[in-house]
Specification:
By secondary structure, the chain is of the alpha/beta class. It is built from twelve helices and seven strands. The protein has two domains: 351 residues, Thiamin diphosphate (ThDP)-binding fold, Pyr/PP domains (Rossmann fold, 3-Layer(aba) Sandwich); 31 residues, no CATH class. 43% of the residues are buried. It binds thiamine diphosphate and magnesium ion (MG).
């Protein structure tokens, strides 16, 4: 029918789609020389009361403070004291060592799953330093640095990873999906994107209660393609929610590169413009830039000036998780070629340039963190490792999920017990 009604249009081009492809695949030599990286200190810092439109240029560039010589330059320099910088450096070293040991624990069969944040340590740890202790985070699985920076016990994290007798969550959550209200760390959700509407909802509730605490939402580059990202942004904009909304653009979503989430067409920070929210794009491997940007956004939120979207530009230096093998989809040398460097090395160089650090002190901190992680691991393993956890108490699976167990689950529980399915 349609063919008969429609005139033939031989001159029109055949319609086609664009399917983004990453620049480099295994076997290629990665070359980031075409990446536009502004000089440190070259990006202006707007007034807190700047309109979202005035911040638009900041969504296309990169806020950077640390230059190639480890000097802090420009208007975004937060001028932190050396003790604060040393604490951030130590926390980053600790997270990296923690990640390495837990990764190894998974390979040794002590747990089923682990996720590292290697190369991205500066983002969560520095954000924790820039926020107030009682601000609330809605993190993804790559913000373990928030807990560590806020002094959460490593033993408790490990017990959760081992789902052992010390696991406060009683094995209800996948390993690494921590939860601790007292440390302002909302339960990690395996479902991507939930963090934005939840953070915005919490921030709105804080305002409705007349409280002064703000919320911080976290999402990955890949997860910005989820509807939840846009729902969160809409509510944040409409109600001026006191929230800081962070996109960690580590350029990969498992094996999908960021172009699949739209990065070829616009930066993730530029998404903010359409919502009338300021968007900042920040060098995520530069502790000073991260600190300053989070403080700027947090101060806006605290002053009832509304939410800010921050894109932290970084690179996922290792696999997505212990279940992933990135050599199948990207060159192994890509992390080394990444021009924004390693956040730990950059902060170390800065402290050395200030005359506040040296290689010996760095090595001493590394050894101290290593000992701290090993001793926590020993403690945690006394309470068991994952494969030792029996299934001898099958009915406990139904505890603490609902305030009152619904009839259908009660039926399943009774059936499982009766059948002795343990
Ligand atoms: C709604 C939903 N879709 C898909 C998945 C499967 N999944 C888990 S992690 C992941 C990649 C997420 O990438 P990104 O948002 O960039 O975060 P990153 O892992 O890089 O930190 C995917 C697709 C999921 N957990 N939830
Ligand atoms: Mg990602």
């Amino acid at each position: 029918m349609r063919d008969k009604e429609q005139p033939k249009r031989p001159n029109r081009p055949k319609l086609s789609l664009h399917v983004p492809e990453p620049s480099f695949r295994p076997g290629d030599t990665p070359d980031f020389s075409s990446l536009e990286i502004p000089d440190a200190g070259s990006v202006p810092k707007p007034d807190l009361t700047a309109s979202p439109a005035e911040t638009e240029p900041l969504a296309k560039t990169l806020v950077r403070v640390l230059d190639d010589d480890g000097k802090a330059v420009g208007p975004w320099d937060p001028k932190l004291d050396a003790d604060t910088l040393r604490k951030i450096l130590r926390d980053m070293v600790l997270v990296r060592i923690f990640d390495d040991r837990m990764y190894r624990a998974q390979r040794q069969g002590k747990t089923s799953f682990y996720m590292k944040c290697t190369g991205e340590e500066a983002i969560a740890i520095t954000t924790a330093a820039a926020l107030d202790r009682d601000d609330m985070n809605f993190p993804t699985y790559r913000q373990q640095g928030l807990l560590i920076a806020r002094g959460y016990p490593l033993v408790e994290m490990m017990c959760q990873i081992y789902s052992n007798k010390g696991d406060k969550l009683q094995g209800r959550q996948l390993p690494i999906m921590y939860s601790d209200k007292a440390h302002g760390f909302f339960t990690i959700s395996g479902n991507l994107g939930t963090q934005f509407p939840q953070a915005v909802g919490w921030a709105m509730a804080s305002a409705i209660k007349g409280d002064s605490r703000i919320a911080v939402g976290w999402i990955g580059d890949g997860a910005t393609a989820e509807g939840d990202f846009h729902a969160g942004m809409t509510f944040a904009s409409v109600y001026n929610a006191p929230a800081v909304l962070c996109v960690v653009n580590n350029q990969w979503a498992i094996s999908s590169f960021s172009g699949i989430a739209g990065a070829e067409k616009a930066t993730f920070a530029q998404r903010a413009t359409g919502y009338g929210i300021p968007g900042l794009r920040v060098d995520g491997n530069d502790v000073l830039a991260v600190y300053s940007a989070v403080r700027w956004a947090a101060d806006r939120a605290r002053s009832n000036l509304g939410a800010t979207l921050i894109e932290f530009f970084t690179y996922r230096a290792e696999g997505h998780s212990t279940s992933d093998d990135p050599s199948g989809y990207r060159p192994a040398s890509e992390a080394k070629a990444w021009p924004l460097g390693d956040p730990i090395e950059r902060l170390k160089a800065h402290l050395i340039a200030l005359g506040e650090w040296d290689d010996e002190r760095h090595e001493a901190v590394r050894a101290e963190c290593d000992a701290q992680v090993r001793s926590a691991q020993k403690e945690a393993e006394k309470l068991g490792i994952l494969p030792e956890q029996g299934r001898d108490n099958v009915e406990s699976m139904f505890d603490d999920v609902y305030a009152e167990v619904p009839w259908n689950l009660a039926e399943q529980r009774d059936q499982a017990v009766a059948e002795g399915r343990d």
